[in-house]
Amino acid sequence: MAYTVEEEQEINNLKAWWQDNYKSIIITSVLTFGAVFGWRYWQDYQEKKSQALSVQYEQLISIDDTLGEEKFKQFVTDNSKTSYAVLALLERARLNVDTKEFVQAEILLTQALSQSSDDLLISISALRLAMVQYQLQKFDSALSSLDKVKGKSWDSRKLLLKGDILLAKGDNISAKSSFEEALSSASPLEKSFIQMRLNNL
């Protein structure tokens, strides 16, 4: 089949364009494929890593407290940029609170707060830290920790604890104000606790 002059010209132009551009086209294709493959590999790697961390965390919290101290420290160090390290710190602090080791609990919760990047974990760490500092009679530190608790869902617990701290400091007027404010967002059970405090003022 014979080509017309115009068709021959188009074919020659296409050949010339391909000759000039085929390398960049191939490189772009390879890079695009590599980027897609790399992203999928990275997602798969992260998912497997997260699953492995989850298993390690579950094993860690099931270990006897005294036997697991070194493994606990190593886990927190190795995974310091993950939420699992914060969860491990929170769990170990809870065990300390159960045995009334409030000084050690404060150290762990302070570390948990400093390592938290997630808003939920920040609020949980700060609220628990404030509770422990209240037990240690570090009232100003406890109020400072409460300031780091964010989100409406925490308001009633935050204001209730704030009222207790202010009451312990002897500031009955501010404590009453905090308790009354807490009533607006409290659950029925929390309201009963708050009302008892108000009745005793």
TrEMBL record:
GO cellular component term, pick one: plasma membrane
Taxonomic lineage: Bacteria, Pseudomonadati, Pseudomonadota, Gammaproteobacteria, Pasteurellales
Record carries keyword Ribonucleoprotein: no
Domain Ancillary SecYEG translocon subunit/Cell division coordinator CpoB TPR: 15-201
Main localisation: membrane
Pfam families: TPR_21 (PF09976)
Secretion signal span: none
UniProt keyword annotation of Electron transport present: no
Subcellular localization, as worded in the UniProt entry: Cell membrane
Native organism: Bisgaardia hudsonensis
Protein name according to UniProt: Ancillary SecYEG translocon subunit
